[in-house]
Every structure is written in C-alpha cells, then in structure tokens.
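Subject line: Sequence and fold of a protein, written as structure tokens
Enclosed: The protein record, placed directly beneath this head.
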Amino acid sequence: MAKIKKPISTLGIIGVFTFILFIVTAQAQQPIDCLLCQSMTMKTIVASGDLTIMGFESMGIVLDNTESKFFDNSTVHFVGLMKIDKGKVTGSMFGKYLDPSGDFYVIEISQVGTETDWKFIYGTGKFTGITGAGKSIRFTKGKPVSPGTSQVCSKITGTYELKK
C-alpha cells in the first residue's frame, strides 16, 4: 500500500504544478477583438494589362470589443504597397497605433488574397515588449467619398502578451 501512495502523491504534485503553470500561461496571452475603421488614399504606380501596383496611406480609429478596452480609441496610421497580378492580390503594410496616453505600437501586415495576417513588431510605454499576432477581415467598404480613396471597416482578432 505504501508503494502505491508515493507514486500517486508524486503524480498529484506534478498535476497541481502543471495546472498552476497552465493558468499562468493562459493568463499571459490576452484576446484581441477590435473594429478598425479607416479612410485611405491610394496612388496607382503601375496599371498595365494584368498588373496593378498601388501605394496607399490610411488613417482611422479602433473600437475594442473586449471587456478590458485595452486598445480602445487608438488612432492608426498605415502605409503600404499592394500588387494585383492576374487577379491575385498581395500586399505588405506597416501600421502605427497611437494610444490616447501617447504610447504606441507598430504592426507588420501581410496580405495574400483576402487573408490578412498581422504581428506586433514594436511598442513604447505600456506596449514595450508586446508580442502577438492575428488576422484582419474587411467587412464593409463604402462608395469612395472621392476619387483615389477608400473607406473601410475591418474586424481585428488575435492575441497579445505584454512583457512582464
């Protein structure tokens, strides 16, 4: 009987330790669920046959749907390039998100077709050391308010972790 109790108690300790480690890890990553609405200005660089290349700049604002409202009311500034080659869309962009406190973070965005992936690459103040990534899906696109512009809203999802 004593031989059985020792392995069971050892397994119990390992189980409790694993559970605590899981809770700490689970709390480290936080969800992102935001809406981003922005207006962009586009400049066509090449428009020939099956190839179109455009540069763009956009600005907008974030509405955070999570309970924490951690990213709420951040204003954004994006720059990027987009290529449409025989109907296939690819793009590379960078975005600066400015928090109402003045702290900011930068993301890098990669687009292939309708898939838009992003990741954190830099942060200041409360965003120092931020890591994480996610996806963006455009869900609205209004009629351009003037030629060479586009107004859109996107759903931003993913996870982030702050440096401890």
Q: What stands out?
A: Confidence is low (pLDDT under 50) at residues 16-27. Helices lie at 2-28. The domain at 30-161 is CATH 2.40.350.10 (AOC barrel-like).
